[in-house]
Structure formats: C-alpha cells, structure tokens
Amino acid sequence: MKAIQYLFLILLIGCSASNSTYAQQGQELTAEQKAELKQQLQAYANELNLSEEQKPEFEKITRDYFEGLKSLKNNGGSRRPRYKRYKSLKKTKKNSMKSLLSKDQYKVYKKRKGEREKKMREKFKEKKG
Fold first, then answer.
1. What's the structural domain count of the chain?
2. pLDDT tens digit string along 37-59?
3. Which domain holds residue 112?
C-alpha cells in the first residue's frame, strides 16, 4: 500500500504542488483554485519562454496528462495495470513535450521537473516518517 501511495505522489507532480494536492484528494477545484492554477501554468509557460503557438499545445498536453492521472486514480484496479498506464501517460507526456519544446526549453522543463519530483519525495518522507 505504501508503494502505491508513493507512486501516486510521484504521479501527481505537475505544474504546481497545489495542483497535485487537489488531485490527490480527489476534490473538484473551486473557481479560485482553478484561477490560481491557470496563473501558475502561465508563469510556467513564461519561464519556458513559450511562443504564442506553443502555449495552447503546452496547456493541452498538461491537461491531458492530469486528466489521465485523475482517471487512473479514480478507476482503481490492481497495481501492475495502473503502473503500466502511469508509465504510458508519462512517456506520452515526455514525447509530446520533447517534440513541442526547443532543446533549451526542454532543458528548463527537465530541470524544473526534477525539482518538483525532489520536493514530492521529501513531502512523502515527511508524511511517512
């Protein structure tokens, strides 16, 4: 069970820690929370220096990924199929981002992703310990 919890914590790494918290709790977001997340997504797009043409696709990739995670979480089932689905979602997002972003943008994306994963691992350790 702890392994599944850890997996879901890693799964829920996204545009912000607050987004992952809401998704983990399975709650619907309020209008205020949605506005905050949209703002954070725009700030992230600015950090990546996305062009106007890249922004809609970036948002679509991000939205599809989190909808997939939400579906994965809500559907339950055994570990192995869920893990395979998670790996598939993650690979799809990675490939989509790689094709969308320039090499420099992708470097920033990977760096930020690593930072988010590190924070989530630390939060998990705090909860566990």
1. 1
2. 888 888 888 899 999 999 999 99
3. 2-128
